[in-house]
Amino acid sequence: MGFKVAVIYYSRSGRLVTLANVIAEGIRQVEGADVTVYRVKDPIVGDDYNAFDRGVLESPVATPEVVLQADCIVFGAPGRQGGVCCEMSFFLDSLRDFQTNGCLLKGKVGSAFTSVGGVGCGHGGHEGVLQSFHSFFLQHGMLSVGVPPSPMMEMAPLATPLGTCMNGKESGKDTPGSRLRALSEEEVKLAYSQGEWASIITKQLHDDGD
Fold it and tell me: Which of these, 207, 208, 199, lies nearest to 1 by C-alpha position?
């Protein structure tokens, strides 16, 4: 039996677009996974093309119904001054009725990723950002999944079992004229393994429930 996974990111500069898609590729390695990458619509500027970097608006818009229909939800958003960005917080708040009307997300798998650094975003705090997502999962009765243990955890500077985090430093492999940042080898491997691990656990839970 198949199962649905929604990877949902917010990013204005596009720094998390690549990371979201690498996680999605990891998810697809598990038989039966039906994964789609979505974006959170900015509650202030909407879809103003001039406000976003290239590639950000190509993903379909996430809605509460998308979250409700998914068996696994992987959220990603940048940290701002040590906390989750307000645009993602606004989206998470829009799901509060799922908690009060019967805990409708109970039993779903949740996972998270983030980025820190960059102009105007502050530095550090990535574990705090990821913990905020995991707190959301627990409040809704979901099952939190992070990055599985691996030797790569010793090599990535911001590695944490709570989720993949990309740092703010740009590399020479970045796309010219864009703020889309190439991932390091360590970030790719951690993101891929996180997606695959979340997918494995979701499949096990989904198959056991059939």
Answer: 207
